[in-house]
Fold:
Amino acid sequence: MRQTRRRPLTSLRLGGAALRAVTAVTYAVMLLPIVFVCWLSFFKNELLAFPPEGYTLRWFSQIWAQSQFAEGFATSLEVGIVAMLGGLVLGVPASLALARHAFRGKEATATLLTAPLIVPSIVIGTALYIFFIEVEIVTGWPLTGSIVGLALAHILITIPWTVRLITASLLGLDPALEEAAMNLGADRWRTLLRVTLPVIRPAVVAAALFSFVVSFGNLEISLFLVAPGTTTLPIAILQYLEWKIDPTIAAVSLVQIAIIAAGMLLTNRFVKLSQVV
Amino acid sequence: MSDLRLEHLGKSFGEFRAVDDVSLSVAEGELLVLLGPSGCGKTTTLRMIAGFIEATTGRILLGGRDVTYLPPYRRNTGLVFQGYALFPHLSVFENVAFGLEMRRLDRTTIKAKVADALRLVRLEALGQRMPRQLSGGQQQRVALARALVIAPDILLLDEPLSNLDAKLRQEVRVEIRELQKKLGLTAVMVTHDQEEALSMADRLVVMNEGRVQQIGTQRELYNHPQNRFVANFIGRTNFFEGAVTAPGRFRSAGGLDIAFAAGAAERRLLAVRPEKIRLGREASPNCFPGVVERVTYLGSQTEYQVRLASGEAVAIHAQNAQNGADEPLAPGLPVHVAWDAESCQLLD
Structure:
């Protein structure tokens, strides 16, 4: 009796250990580069070498001496904010339509809106580049090298996140709340403003923050669309790397990682990201 | 407060008729209960009155005004939702004030009216709480206050007690009923709970499969059900299939010759309530031999199932003695059962 009981328990324990080991390795593989980048940014020697000769904060002050990083940061910030707002303006109504109404082609619309997640960024970048050129030829609007074109592209990649986060929240919203508002005399517009949006506010805030993070870290799409002379932070990092490898790049990356991590942590306070990503 | 009239109201979802030709009226100050099993169309009817579902056919008249095609926010009905549907981001005060703000009343009036409404449901001290900080019973009262504060033409209650535990349900039932009477509210309540319906209603509407089965007071429905569904849904009953053979005589399928006092000759179903049947041999015209099959102790009553010599089974509810000293009959015991001709109900 005892024997037969012990065996599955042992294999269960073994399975648990194996799971923990695999988890540890996975986390190590994911986190190690980040850990190294952070570590490197404090190395004293200009040429990367192990072990470091010592530690310094010099590279962080270097960042601001290099104008392309400051400019890139400013551009990324600007584009990120525009993409965030644009994503909300388009994403909130789209989510309302998807969550609240039955219409022809609803499934197709939902898939279309999340498609930028599936298509590789580099493909989106190329496609937009060609498309913008075509538009420019026809209309004369200089989209290709403009901040407007860049912001439009970034709005595109924030939409899947906005739609997913807000639709999920709307589907979890008790429809009786909206009915109660209408029963009390609120028309559809006032129901939306006074009840629906306030109740799903955490998801809207999360969508905004996440959109910003997605835009702020994007390299592949921006590469095709920046104007000569302007640059985003990820592009500045890439360009710097083409000429030089010193810990400045690690320091810049650390700043970028810190901003994105802060955004993610803040987002997570409003909506558990593990539920939607 | 206004009266309500539904005229041939119907709602179809594709081929499915959720509500089929429902006509009824609710007088001013009356509480009408729509009662039926789930899927009978009672909730759909209520939601049509509130305006969340558009009727396919018929008319809804509220205080003589045709509201059939008005959106919910132009109807002036006060609905208490099953799950209360309190706005989670607003305080108790703001929840109750919501409807008044939509009516663009000024601040002072709103404050006074909300205070009155909260006092009415004995929650005047909890105005600043958030809904999640309240118990189920308190949330229910906020929902009631929120529906009443707008002075609706009619109060609509959608299974208002189903989320409360049994003890609280009893209390709130009495409370809602007293409030409704005191304020003279015209009200329509939906429930599937027979006891709730019987204890609160002025009149009841029994519904099944989208159709009204019968409308009447508790007594009318219990003592004079019109069909098998109503007889079975309101209380329990024993059925005998068969036919009327002579005036006042009904012959059951098993061959019982039953005397009845009143009923139309073309009816093919006879019902007798379990508590109207007595155990023991007597000179009554309806006295038949049988054998006790099953005995169930129910506290105040004992339920016997007796298999009659005709092959038909009847359930009998016998009142237990005050001192609890009575000995129940044992299964297998031969007995006689008897009931009065006046206790027979003939149904469609």
Notes: The first helix of chain A runs from residue 2 to 40. Chain A touches chain B through 18 residues (CB under 8 Å). Residues 64-275 of chain A form a domain with the MetI-like fold fold (CATH 1.10.3720.10). Chain A has a mean pLDDT of 85.
